[in-house]
Write a structure and sequence with these properties.
alpha/beta; Nucleotidyltransferase, domain 5; 10-stranded mixed β-sheet; 8-stranded mixed β-sheet; 17 helices
C-alpha cells in the first residue's frame, strides 16, 4: 500500500473520531461569538466567574433541572442562547424555549438568537429561517439535522400540546400566569416526560414573593449561593445589600462591610473578589436539581458598581413602586406585600390641610379617576409631585349616565382651572373613566372618544399580571385596559410603607373606608398560587376604583416636570374667551 493511500485512510479515520466533549462553559468561550448590537462587548465570549458553574450545570448529564434566580446585568440571556446553541450543534434534540409572550419570543429570535448564530462560525446555517421543501420552518419553529426548535409563548398554552421535547428552556418564569388550562410551566414540563435524559432550565427575575415561580423552583433545588472572599480576612460570604454602606448623602462612596472582620472594602477590590468567588450548595442533599441565586452586587459591569447601585437605591426608595423594581431587578428578591389589609382609621388620621382650593406647592400634575354607577358619577382628583400622590378632593355628580346632563357636568369638572400657589395654573392632565359596566360602556366610550385629545380615556380593569395601562387590542375600540392588580399592589405599598400618599382634610369619611375596601389573599388556582384582591364583605369600593383609574392614566401623561415647574411658577393666568366673537367685516 503506497503512502498516499495510507495518508488518505488516516485522514478518513480521523474524521470519524467525534470531537472532544466540552463543558458548556468551555464550548461557549471557544466557539460562541457576540455580534455588535447584541452585546456592548462584541466578539469572542468570555464568561464571568459566576457564569461558568451555571453553564457547566446546564451541560451536566447528572443534573435534570437547573434553576437560576437572577437580577439584571448578569448575562443570563447569553447563557440561555449558549445552551440552546450547544444542543443544536453538539446534541441535536427536540428543544422548546418558553417565553412569556409571543412578542418576547419574536424579539428573542430576531434580536439575540439569529444574530448570534450568524456571527458564530460553528453555528452559521444550522438554523435557517427559510422554509424547506415541506414548508415547516417559520420564525418560531425550526427543524435542523437530528432535532427541532420551537419557541412558544406562555400565553398560548395550546401551542404546548403537540410537542414532545428533551430540552426545555424557560425564561422570565415569573411573568407567566396560570390560564384556563393550568400553569404553562407545568404544561411545558409535561412535554419532557418521554425523555429519560430530559433537561429543564428555568430562570427568572423574581416578582412577588408569595407567588414566584422561580423562588418555588429554587427552594426545591440544592440552593447554591455565590460567595466571595474578603480581601482583608479571607472569609467567604454572600454579597448582600445589608453589607453595603456609604457616607450620608454620598452614595458614590458605597463600599462592602465584611460581616466577619468588619473591614470596609472598596469597589476596586470587587473584581478580584468575584474572580476568586465560589458557589456553595446550602441544600447539598438535593440530587439532580442545581439552583443558583445571584444579585447584581457581584456584577463587574461599570453600571453595576456599588456606588451606582447605591445611587439607584436612594432614588428608588422614595416610592414603593420604584423600590419594588430595585428589589426585584437588582437584589433578585421577591417583593413582599406590606400588609394584607389597610387600616382606614390610620389613613384618616393622616389628613392634612390642603385641597383643590389650596393645592400644595409640590403638585405638578393632576389626574382624575371617574367611577360610573347607575345613578351617579364619582370623581377623585389626584395631585402628583415628583415622588408623592396628593388626594386633592372628591365629588359626586348625580344623574342617569344614559342621559346627557351628568356628562355635561363631568365635562365642566374636568375643564376646571386651579390656581397654583406659586402663581401659575393647573388643569386636569389626564382622566380615566370606568367603562367596565356593560350597560354604560358604549356611552362612556362615545364620551371619551371625542375627548381623547384632552387625554380623557375610557378604561376597563383587568386582573392578573398586566401593564398598568395599555390600549385594547380590539380593533375600532378606543378603550384602554388597566392592570388593576398591579396598581392595587402599588397603592397598598405606598399606603403602608411610608407616607407617599397624602390626604386632603376635605375628603368625606366614607373615602377611607372605600379606599381600604379590598384585601390581598393568595389562593391556588389550577395548581399555581395567585395573588387576588378580595372585596371585604359589606364595603363599597368607588373611591378605590377612582384612585386606581387616576393612577393608571398618570402613565399616559408625558409632561416634562422641570418645564412644568417653571410653568406653575409663572403668574400668567389664562385669558377668558369673549362671550361673543364679532367679525371685523361688518365694521368696514
Amino acid at each position: 500500500m503506497n503512502s498516499a493511500v495510507i495518508e488518505t485512510r488516516r485522514r478518513a479515520l480521523r474524521a470519524l473520531v467525534p470531537p472532544p466533549r466540552l463543558h458548556l462553559s468551555e464550548w461557549i468561550e471557544t466557539h460562541m461569538r457576540l455580534p455588535e448590537g447584541v452585546s456592548a462587548l462584541p466578539g469572542r465570549v468570555t464568561l464571568w466567574p459566576y457564569q461558568r458553574e451555571i453553564a457547566d450545570a446546564i451541560s451536566d448529564p447528572e443534573l435534570e433541572r437547573v434553576t437560576l434566580v437572577k437580577p439584571v446585568r448578569v448575562g443570563f440571556t447569553t447563557l440561555l442562547t449558549g445552551a440552546l446553541a450547544s444542543y443544536v450543534a453538539n446534541e441535536p434534540s427536540p428543544i422548546l424555549a418558553l417565553l412569556p409572550t409571543e412578542a418576547d419570543a419574536r424579539d428573542y429570535v430576531v434580536s439575540d438568537l439569529e444574530p448570534i448564530f450568524d456571527a458564530t462560525p460553528a453555528l452559521r446555517g444550522l438554523l435557517s429561517a427559510e422554509s424547506d421543501e415541506t414548508g415547516r420552518n417559520t420564525l418560531l419553529s425550526r427543524r435542523f439535522a437530528g432535532g427541532s426548535l420551537k419557541i412558544v409563548a406562555a400565553k398560548s398554552p395550546r401551542n404546548l400540546r403537540r410537542h414532545n421535547v428533551r430540552v426545555l428552556l424557560i425564561d422570565e418564569a415569573d411573568a407567566m400566569e396560570a390560564g384556563a388550562e393550568g400553569s404553562p410551566i407545568t404544561l411545558a414540563e409535561r412535554r419532557t416526560l418521554s425523555f429519560a435524559n430530559r433537561k429543564i432550565i428555568l430562570g427568572s427575575t423574581p416578582i412577588m414573593e408569595e407567588t414566584s415561580n422561580v423562588l418555588r423552583s429554587y427552594a426545591r433545588s440544592d440552593m447554591r449561593i455565590f460567595e466571595v472572599p474578603c480581601p482583608e480576612c479571607g472569609a467567604f460570604g454572600e454579597l448582600q445589600w445589608s453589607h453595603i454602606e456609604w457616607q450620608p448623602g454620598e452614595p458614590e462612596t458605597a463600599a462592602f462591610r465584611c460581616p466577619h472582620c468588619e473591614a470596609l472594602v472598596q469597589e476596586r477590590h470587587k473584581a478580584g473578589m468575584v474572580e476568586n468567588g465560589r458557589w456553595r450548595a446550602t441544600a447539598p442533599h438535593v440530587v439532580g436539581h442545581a439552583g443558583f441565586r445571584l444579585n447584581a452586587l457581584v456584577s463587574t459591569l461599570a453600571n453595576a458598581s456599588w456606588g451606582k447601585l447605591a445611587a439607584e437605591f436612594v432614588e428608588a426608595k422614595k416610592s414603593p413602586d420604584t423600590l419594588q423594581v430595585f428589589v426585584n431587578t437588582i437584589l433578585a428578591q421577591g417583593w413582599r406585600e406590606a400588609a394584607e389589609e389597610i387600616d382606614e382609621a390610620a389613613l384618616a388620621a393622616r389628613a392634612e390641610s390642603f385641597g383643590l382650593d389650596a393645592i400644595p406647592p409640590d403638585v405638578l400634575v393632576i389626574t382624575a379617576g371617574v367611577d360610573v354607577q347607575r345613578d351617579r358619577l364619582e370623581i377623585v382628583f389626584l395631585g402628583w409631585s415628583r415622588d408623592e400622590i396628593f388626594v386633592l378632593g372628591q365629588s359626586v355628580i348625580y344623574g342617569d349616565p344614559a342621559g346627557d346632563d351628568v356628562w355635561s357636568e363631568l365635562d365642566d369638572a374636568l375643564r376646571t382651572v386651579w390656581k397654583h400657589p406659586k402663581g401659575g395654573i393647573l388643569r386636569v392632565d389626564a382622566a380615566g373613566v370606568d367603562a367596565g359596566d356593560g350597560e354604560t360602556m358604549d356611552r362612556v366610550v362615545g364620551y371619551c372618544r371625542a375627548r381623547m385629545a384632552r387625554r380623557i380615556y375610557a378604561l376597563k380593569g383587568a386582573t392578573g399580571n398586566r401593564p398598568a395601562i395599555r390600549a385594547s387590542d380590539t380593533k375600532g375600540t378606543k378603550l384602554f385596559i388597566v392592570g388593576v392588580d398591579g396598581l392595587k399592589g402599588q397603592l397598598a405599598s405606598r399606603l403602608t410603607r411610608g407616607r407617599t400618599v397624602r390626604f386632603s382634610d376635605r375628603l368625606e369619611g366614607r373615602f377611607y373606608e372605600e379606599l381600604a375596601s379590598e384585601r390581598l389573599i393568595v389562593r391556588y388556582i389550577r395548581g399555581a398560587p395567585a395573588r387576588l384582591w378580595e372585596r371585604i364583605p359589606g364595603r363599597r369600593a368607588e373611591s378605590l376604583d377612582c384612585v386606581i383609574y387616576g393612577m393608571a392614566v398618570r402613565n399616559l401623561v408625558t409632561a416634562n416636570l422641570d418645564r412644568r415647574e417653571e410653568e406653575v411658577a409663572s403668574a400668567t393666568m389664562p385669558k377668558k374667551a369673549p362671550a361673543v366673537v364679532k367679525s371685523a367685516w361688518l365694521n368696514r
